[in-house]
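Hi R.,

Here's the chain you asked about this morning:
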Amino acid sequence: MGLTHFLITSKGVKVNNSRPLKQQLKRLKREQRKLSRKKRGSNNRNKQRLKISKIHERIMNIREDFQHKLSKFIVCENQAIAIEKLNI
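And the predicted structure, written out as tokens:
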């Protein structure tokens, strides 16, 4: 189960999840698999850990940027904002 659209406004504007985020999550998955094959304590494992931490940082920046741009769009385009909590 997941979201088909990240946001739908009352005017019918649909906002999907960020595509670069999906690409980075796929890359993170691949790099973590590479890390799992490295021997503990080796220099190559430490280098791989650094690669993964950079990908995590990039993902964080993409999410923050997407949320900031989306919040600005919502505030500028609408007069009232309502939030619904779904119990699934």
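The chain has a mean pLDDT of 89.

Let me know if you need anything else.
M.
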